[in-house]
Amino acid sequence: MKPTRNVRWPFALLAYLFTGLALAGIALPGLPTVPFLLVAAWAASRGSKRLRCWLEAHRHLGPLLYCWEQERAIPRRAKQMTVLLLFPSWFWIAWVSSGTAVPVAMAVLFMTVAVYVVTRPSPTQPVRLSAGE
Fold first, then answer.
1. Could you tell me if 43 and 12 are in contact, meaning their C-beta atoms sit under 8 angstroms apart?
2. What are the pLDDT tens digits along the chain (133 aa)?
3. Closest Cα to residue 27, out of 62, 72, 60, 52?
4. Alpha-carbon span 53 to 113, nearest angstrom
5. Where would you tag: which of 8, 16, 26, 122 has the fewest CB atoms within 10 A of its CB?
6. CA distance 42 to 45
7. Which parts of the chain span the membrane according to its record (predicted)?
8. So what's the pLDDT on residue 49?
């Protein structure tokens, strides 16, 4: 059953919004990339075939999506980068925060994310994330 236009456009809007957030998360500390990417892929599969195809064909994002969808796995290099980048993100948040509540909450959140990411399996097949990695 093909979704009607009235059903597709909210998913397409959501997909483009979360794709933008995922791309912003690549450059901005404290803004996660992978959760936004997964929501974008889910919404795009229901609302925008063009965006879904673009995400799957993207040289950096495509292999991550493939691993997640096929095996619920995260490549070892992506795990390392995720955990490594949580540290400068937390230090930046702690530096710009005036109180202690936000840094403490973010420390708990970041530790939870790190544990979740590290405990996911690695793909059974080698994955090339990009030409430079």
1. yes
2. 556 667 789 999 999 999 999 888 878 766 777 778 889 999 999 999 999 999 999 888 888 888 888 999 988 888 888 888 888 889 989 999 999 999 999 999 999 988 998 999 999 877 665 544 4
3. 60
4. 28
5. 26
6. 5
7. 12-42, 101-119
8. 92
Q: Which long-range contacts (CB under 8 A, 24 or more apart) does 35-43 make?
A: 37/61, 37/64, 37/65, 38/65, 38/68, 39/14, 40/14, 40/15, 40/16, 41/15, 41/65, 41/69, 43/11, 43/12, 43/14, 43/15, 43/18
Quote the DSSP letter at residue 60. T
User: Positive or negative, the Cα torsion across 80, 60, 21, 122?
Assistant: negative
Tokens representing residue 53 in the block: 């195809």
Closest Cα partner for 23 from 43, 46, 40, 1? 40
> Rounded distance, CA 125 to CA 72, Å?
13
Residue 22's CB is within 10 A of a number of other CB atoms, namely 22
Q: What tokens appear for 27 in the block?
A: 């450059």
Maximum CA extent, the chain: 53
